[in-house]
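HUMAN: Please help interpret these tokens:
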Amino acid sequence: MRISIIVPTFNRADTLVRCLTSIADVVAGNDDVEVLVIDNGSTDRTRATFTEIAKNYHETCWRYFYDGMPGGLTGRHRGAKEARGEILAYTADDVLLAPSWLDALRSAFSDPNVILVGGPSRPHYETDPPVWLNALWEEFDGGRTCLYLSLLDLGVGVKPLDPIWIWTVNFSIRKDVLHACGGFHPFSIPKSLQRYQGDGETGLALKIRAKGLTGLYCPDVAVTHLIPASRLTPEYFERRAFYQGVCDSYTRIRRNGAVPPHSKKSWKDRAWPIVREVYRKAISFRNEPKFILSLMGHANAAGVAFHENEVRNDPKLLEWVLKPDYFDYSLPEGWRNYLDGPLRPER
């Protein structure tokens, strides 16, 4: 059983070096493991960082691929195409593997009935998290999760887990199952290309679930997710909620096969921009959990409305949303016409 660890990356050389070092420490001396770094068009020291790591940890099988097609789908499907292993172990360029990760993953997949494995994704905060962050954690299945930071901790027991709760910071799947289920959907699209946004691993999870399959939670298949200070602000969560709204709209349109009828904004929606600015200027309210949740709720609704409107007015975009699969991960012809600014994924 060969394992292919796939690390999509974009302009994060500083965290990538920590990620790849942690992988090297875990996989050293294992001939049945390869590490694929899929560079999604980086303009920083990403390639030099990879070269240095590969030189310093020469006992590991390293492979590097550059692909400039915008969006996180590039890394996931280019990685699957190039991988030699039957197990595709996806992680992120801001993640550190626990020492137990590889042995636990191999043990889980030794059961031929196991098709998808996830585990804890615990935070390492660059700075002390704000008090209001507690309001964004949810109790779930004997543990807790924070969706907007891709954090999950369900305790010490091995247990079946709905695929919807296994995210690509720590997502390992049999290659044949990935292909049989149609692969991932678009995600992490640059801001100006949000019309092409999809629901990423959520779409794949729903297809896995529809086939009557499930995932497995293994507490020792654990990772640490590096959370910078820039992701611990109200502004970040507002942007992230807008992005989630776009994803939610994409999911619903695919499920229904059509765009919902246009609906008029309520007076509350029309008044919200004014209310938001008043609250932002009132420092005493800025860090109130209720305000953060309001920011996120309205941003999510705005993301849904934006995406629905884009799809409603462009039949070609509706075709993109309803594609059977995205193994050809090229964006639709004409995508450059919408590009405004750098090709930076919106996360």
Q: What stands out?
A: Residues 3-229 form a domain with the Spore Coat Polysaccharide Biosynthesis Protein SpsA; Chain A fold (CATH 3.90.550.10).
